[in-house]
Amino acid sequence: MRLRVILALTLVMSCTKVFFTFVSRGKDLLQGKTEKSHVTSILEESRLMVDSAIYSTMQRNLRKREIISPTQLLSFSKLPEPTSGAISRAAEIMETSVQAMKGDVFLKRGQSQHLTDVLTEDVLNTIANMSGCLPYMLPPKCPNTCLANKYRLITGACNNRDHPRWGASNTALARWLPPAYEDGFSQPRGWNPGFLYNGFPLPPVREVTRKIIQASNEAVTEDDQYSDLLTVWGQYISHDIAFTPQSTSKAAFWGGTDCQLTCENQNPCFPIQLPRNSSQMAGTTCLPFYRSSATCGTGDQGAFFGNLSQANPRQQMNGLTSFLDASTVYGSSPALEKQLRNWTSAEGLLRVNTRHWDAGRAYLPFVPPHAPSACTPKPGTHAAHAPCFLAGDGRASEVPSLAAMHTLWLREHNRLATALKALNPHWSADAAYQEARKVVGALHQIITLRDYVPKILGPEAFEQYVGPYEGYDSTVNPTVSNVFSTAAFRFGHATVHPLERRLDARFQEHPGLPGLPLHDVFFSPWRLIQGGGVDPLLRGLLARPAKLQVQDQLMNTELTERLFVISNSGTMDLASLNLQRGRDHGLPGYNAWREFCGLRRLETPADLSTAIGSSSVVDGIMDLYKHPDNIDVWLGGLAENFFPGARTGPLFACIIGKQMKALRDGDRFWWEDSLVFTEAQRHELQKHSLSRVICDNTGLTHVPIDTFHVARYPQDLEACENIPGMNLAVWKETFPQDDMCGLPDRVENGDFVHCEESGKHVLVFSCHHGYELQGQEQATCTQQGWDVPPPTCKDVNECGDPVHTPCHPSARCRNTLGGFRCICTDPYELGEDARTCVDSGRLPRASWVSIALGALLLGGLAGLTWTVICRW
């Protein structure tokens, strides 16, 4: 207890010191005294403040290790991979610094003024660099080898050669309309209680959920056309193209208040207020909510980049590539790709689970030991946590059906890589991996645009907003838009069935595997491994209907009352999270987006009734929002009448259609482009389907031809031998035997891929993540052999730069081959970010040794004394 008090007092004192130092430093800055050194000091103090907030969260999580709350599970599902986490932290350090300096300008001059009127461009560059933001703002270095047009980079960068950051991971989501922040820069809609919209405050999001969105689990109208797999594919694809991490800090920057404990809006805390009569959580007036991470150079930091005379509004980050490129399978960063690959395999395989098998077929691997993991063990085990699955996206373990989809594509990659390597024995492991990855990415594109999106938009809207493919357009920005990821593509939440269904080999209810309510399956990989494996779940997805999105049954209580519930540890509400997230991102209201799409504005309740057929829903919306312009875009789009033959209304059909067209036309590696695959390969790819993928990678022998139409047994099922698929023979490549070169020996800690350039045979070398190339990257075959010797791969010393060390100052950085480790001294241990040392709350091991030795000494003295007394 004393240790906790000391830690709390230390945190308060450090934050108080930082605040007052900010003021004094800022005054010196305005007086022109050693400007650059003061900026350096302020940045260091900002780093201390942000890291203190991060530290306090990890310390709390360490203490509450035995209790997993829904909020912790939500945070885990939004946990960024290390690269995204580093960018988020850098942006928060920069934002904290700027707020301090900006506040001091107000104190000094009594008015708002751009920081560029006070600071020189040189100082601005110093702030950008020292905060850690600058490296992530600079254009990436694009490769110029012959592979530049053959394989996409794992980060998505350099897809567009003129705009290399378009669609890349860890860049800002696109804005199709300017954000509607209450202060014009970063404050969410609904941040200030007295702020009025058309004369009215915005309604609390929890009230909107309870009065308009929520329906009981029993009040579920099932879709008469489409299967549950349509819903799961939408969730899976959304995880391929967008992930916005939450703030890395879980406590307010100015004072360190824990976001779990405060109901006040203090950045990054933006709690969801509960109605006064709510019985949701006894003694609680709000649900914790953390703002999304800002992107470097936006919000209050915006003056530092681009036009230095004008600050940019806060933008949110997409941690994934925007492209339909199967980043769910391969990741969006070199570090994660390194974890996912099996580097001992000659076939370019992905890693699989070594502890569990599904009737001889692979499961996803588990996350590495000591990695953050909040998954639940099987009841009856003594562990508090269990390892989650490791996949290209960190949300793979959310529910078993999603984990099953990830597992399916892991198996498909390994099947393809093995077959392609057998066809081309001369290929390196990297060549087999890249070719299989390229095919898997193409299949994701085909299934999504050919089979999935037309069912969501309907034929009319698909033709209007997507249309036929006419080739790559370098003027189209494929970056995922904020309104698409934060609102429109979340329409699928209204199609989630409250049960995960599992069926036997005859597609009937499985006597030993009943349907499971969602609250029983969140973050429970054991449900997949010990619940019959992938096959029963896939049968349930194929032969059971999705929930139909009905206006007065928008979301069931599994999602609005029991989201991420484990035991009796509290609850979360997905509908309220969606509404609050839209406000956090400053999304303009419903009518602004209708106008953007060329749809008629709805000015009155009568107008609203033309778009929303349910009079009770219209009345509820008007009662809460008072004016159609105030309606949150996610709710407005969700409640609209469907287009004919669609599963969305006009607004979401427009936004989703525009986004899908941009993802297709702005992707230089889109599968239909004539430079990506040969004509024969494109012909074979068109034959393939999700049905064929299921046949090739599961024990199912019969499947529906269209997996998204709900199947009745046995009439709607087709034998797998009748389901067409690709003939991989068109991928066979003949390596020339008449040249003087041959293939080089294996490159240690690296690999090579063969390609052609100007009719010559070329090898392009690369090193594994954590190593750097020493020598020429590209070798060309000549009459005398290869024109340069093979390069070597040298270990990168990540700990060598004391300014940008990957470990927090509380930890010691130790370089390892291909990586690094952050080391803590006893009794500290690594927190969930694997870079910060957190007090474990126990005595150091040396203290225990001292206590034991002391006890032995005292015991010896006592024994000696007793012996002397007795003998005397």
Describe this protein's structure.
- The protein has 872 residues and is of the alpha+beta class.
- It has 5 domains: 197 residues, no CATH class; 312 residues, Myeloperoxidase, subunit C; 46 residues, Complement Module, domain 1 (Ribbon); 41 residues, Ribbon (Laminin); 28 residues.
- It contains 26 helices and 24 strands.
- The strands form 11 sheets. It has a 4-stranded antiparallel beta sheet. It has a two-stranded antiparallel ribbon with strand order 1-6.
- A hairpin with a 2-residue loop joins β21 and β22.
- α8 crosses α16 and α12 runs antiparallel to α23.
- The protein is globular, with a radius of gyration of 29 Å.
Number of helices: 26
The share of residues in helices is: 25-40%
Strands in their spatial order, largest beta sheet: 15-16-18-19
Span from first to last CA? 46 Å
CATH superfamily of the largest domain: Haem peroxidase domain superfamily, animal type
Rg, rounded, reads 29 Å
* Overall geometry: globular
Which parts are unreliable, with pLDDT below 50 for 5 consecutive residues or more?
A: 1-33, 110-117, 300-310
CATH class of the largest domain: Mainly Alpha
Q: How many structural domains can be distinguished in the coordinates?
A: 5
Structural class: alpha+beta
Average pLDDT reading: 85
Largest sheet: 4 strands, antiparallel
Number of beta strands = 24
Note the beta-strand portion.
5-15%
CATH topology tier name of the largest domain: Myeloperoxidase, subunit C
Reported CATH architecture of the largest domain: Orthogonal Bundle
